[in-house]
Amino acid sequence: MHILIERSNLLKSLTHVHRVVERRNTIPILSNVLLRTESGALRLKATDLDIEITESVPATGEREGGTTVPAHLLYDIVRKLSDGAEVKLSTNAEGTQMTVASGRSNFRLQCLPEADFPDITAGQFTHSFQLKASELARLIERTQFAISTEETRYYLNGIFLHTIDVDGAPRLRAVATDGHRLARAETDAPAGSEGMPGIIVPRKTVGELQKLLGEAEDEILVELSDSKIRFTLSDIVMTSKLIDGTFPDYQRVIPTGNDKALTLDRAVFASAVDRVSTISSERGRAVKLAVADGQLTLTVNSPDAGTATEELAVGYEADSIEIGFNARYLLDITGQLSGEEAVFMMADPGSPTLIKDGADEGTLYVLMPMRV
């Protein structure tokens, strides 16, 4: 293997692929990135056995071949090379070392055989469709904060992606919940997604996909089966295993009879919650919402620090109510709303509250109350 490649191109690709590599591995080959030269390009591949990312980048090759080198080490080396530099990658005859040379800098890295590198992309994909990168990014952004981190309920450790018929129109829906809050977002179902199995995309995959979508502008290709999903964004291909579990029937926890409608300015409300929750020293401290006669009073009581209150003018015509919520959860949800107004549909202090986005009918949130 002997190639020349621009430092900026190599760094960009390494940035994409090296992130899936865990810094601590019991299997040495999983710490490495696979580099293979083929027909005027360098293909990079990295995996943690659950996610695999490959990317091709233009390169000038004198001798084709492949090897694997430590991913984070190579990334750090290339990151510290001079801007605009050209990087020469070459392996020795035995394939045990790779030289990284640029200007007066020269590094020799230990290699592991390409043949030992695992491949998780085998298998057939039963469904495929194309979706705008911006739409998939929106589905993820609106729901990913509610993904559970509790490993015992592993089936909640991802976003549930499925199609559903809404008033005769097929919709692609994303749902996430941690048992305390639920986030749901949807978009028009793209051609080819009809009949797709309901799948749970793991939290780590969601995070990596979110970073890649931030750079994508065009449509992306989504292919999936019961056990895997693959995203193709131009020269980047990310394949991931899916969570093998059954997502709970989330429709059962979405309230339908809540009749107390509270309409408020999203930004003003979020700022007020942030201010009064400053007094709280414990994570998860509740903020009490007392609503009556078009006025909302926010209250936080802390045994250690004291009390904070703030009043807001709101739209409310139902019977007065006092209800408590986790301040952090309120801020998470209001941070995802795109409209100026938020609508809280409440029933009583002990029942879940439905939160709607004034500018996005396809998005809704459910928040469980706290005792105050």
Written description of the protein model:
The protein has 372 residues and is an alpha+beta fold. The chain is built from 6 helices and 25 strands. Strands 6-2-3-4-17-16-15-10 form an 8-stranded antiparallel β-sheet. Strands 14-11-12-13-25-24-23-18 form an 8-stranded antiparallel β-sheet. Helix 3 packs across helix 4 and helix 5 packs antiparallel against helix 6.
Features:
alpha+beta, eight-stranded antiparallel β-sheet, 6 helices
Number of DSSP E strands: 25
Low-confidence stretches: none
C-alpha geometry: elongated
- How much of the polypeptide forms β-strand, as a percent range? 35-45%
Q: What is the overall pLDDT average?
A: 92
Count of DSSP helices?
A: 6
The portion of residues assigned to helices is: 10-25%
Task: Record the strand order, biggest sheet.
Answer: 6-2-3-4-17-16-15-10
The biggest beta sheet reads: 8 strands, antiparallel
Class derived from helix and strand content: alpha+beta
Give the termini distance in whole angstroms: 66 Å
Radius of gyration: 25 Å
Domain DNA polymerase III beta sliding clamp central: 130-249
Main location: cytoplasm
Protein name: Beta sliding clamp
InterPro entries: DNA_clamp_sf (IPR046938), DNA_polIII_beta (IPR001001), DNA_polIII_beta_C (IPR022635), DNA_polIII_beta_cen (IPR022637), DNA_polIII_beta_N (IPR022634)
